């Protein structure tokens, strides 16, 4: 039976007071799901009581990257922990935050897991939640949002989005900025507003419902948006700022709906792939160009496939997550 590790044991560990048996127990405890969050919580509490210096997180991560590239000698994980039993004496060595970060990086392997808490959402689901500052977020299917594990800084509330989410940002007393990093040099900066952001490899898109936002673009460019504005750029379309007449299509996913406005079936298939994690192949070139309009509720691929079959008399074959669509004999 595995023993639990309490706060007092971890505090002794941070101060170099644990025995070899306790070190082994902590090492096994860290491998159990969910315990790394508690570890960081206690580490943050211990550091707040034993402030020594401000860590250089970037430098620590660069050292770790150097280890991966073979430019610096790496210390095995077990050896890093084992050496702590020698950190005793007349003057106790107190582990600083930077060293703790390097230890955690060695144990878990990824910088984002150290610095950020990750909200994730599976295919076919939406998920609402509230951030520590009061900001409300609705996360779309197959999306994730990374939030600073130890809280926002005073001047900026910075998160990282991969996928799609709606943000209803709370204005703070000190007017701190809320920044959504979208990778590839794109970011949204606001004070208090409501907007939908879409950030995947092929496309970056922001629809502003309320307030004002500033889009930060690669190479230092900026664009200011007004309510009703749509910013979009993709590998197939150049950057554009427009005001769509029917903004419902950018909000329909929140209620498990698809909004189509004379949309080619090839685009319908692509949206189904993003929402449900399936692979859809349209075997007939003429079928790809057929158009679909309307608002359809669908919480699974079958819901929308049934509608498509009724409209176009399709032959549908499915093998696990791969779906093939062909024109039916009467089409």
UniProtKB/TrEMBL annotation:
The keyword Metal-binding does not apply. Residues 257-323 form the Protein FecR C-terminal domain. Residues 129-214 form the FecR protein domain. The chain crosses the membrane at residues 93-110. InterPro entries: FecR, FecR_C, Ferrdict_sens_TM. Keywords: Membrane, Transmembrane, Transmembrane helix. It comes from the Bacteria. The keyword Transmembrane applies. PANTHER family: PERIPLASMIC SIGNAL SENSOR AND SIGMA FACTOR ACTIVATOR FECR-RELATED, PROTEIN FECR. This is FecR family protein.
């Amino acid at each position: 039976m595995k023993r639990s590790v309490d706060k007092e044991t971890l505090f002794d560990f941070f101060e170099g007071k644990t025995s070899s048996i306790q070190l082994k127990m902590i090492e096994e405890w860290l491998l159990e799901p969910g315990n790394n969050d508690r570890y960081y919580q206690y580490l943050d509490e211990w550091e707040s009581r034993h402030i020594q210096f401000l860590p250089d997180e970037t430098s620590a991560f660069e050292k770790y990257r150097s280890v991966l590239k073979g430019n610096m000698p790496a210390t095995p994980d077990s050896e890093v922990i084992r050496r702590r039993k020698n950190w005793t004496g007349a003057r106790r060595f107190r582990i600083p935050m930077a060293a703790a970060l390097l230890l955690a990086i060695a144990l878990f392997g990824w910088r984002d897991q150290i610095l950020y808490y990750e909200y994730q959402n599976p295919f076919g689901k939406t998920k609402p939640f509230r951030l520590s500052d009061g900001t409300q977020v609705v996360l779309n299917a197959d999306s994730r949002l990374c939030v600073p594990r130890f809280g926002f800084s005073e001047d900026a509330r910075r998160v990282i989005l991969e996928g799609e989410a709606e943000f209803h940002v709370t204005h703070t007393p000190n007017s701190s900025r809320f920044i959504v990093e979208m990778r590839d040099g794109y970011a949204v900066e606001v004070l208090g507003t409501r907007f939908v952001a879409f950030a995947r490899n092929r496309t970056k898109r922001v629809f502003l419902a309320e307030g004002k936002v500033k889009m930060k673009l690669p190479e230092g460019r900026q664009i200011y948006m007004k309510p009703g504005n749509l910013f979009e750029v993709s590998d197939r379309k150049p950057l554009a700022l427009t005001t769509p007449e029917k903004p419902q299509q950018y909000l329909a996913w929140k209620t498990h709906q698809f909004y189509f406005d004379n949309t080619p079936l090839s685009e319908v298939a692509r949206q189904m792939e993003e929402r449900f994690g399936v692979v859809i192949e349209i075997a007939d070139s003429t079928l790809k160009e057929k158009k679909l309009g309307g608002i359809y509720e669908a919480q699974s691929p079958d819901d929308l496939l049934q509608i498509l079959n009724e409209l176009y008399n399709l032959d549908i074959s499915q093998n696990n997550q791969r779906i093939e669509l062909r024109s039916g004999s009467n089409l």
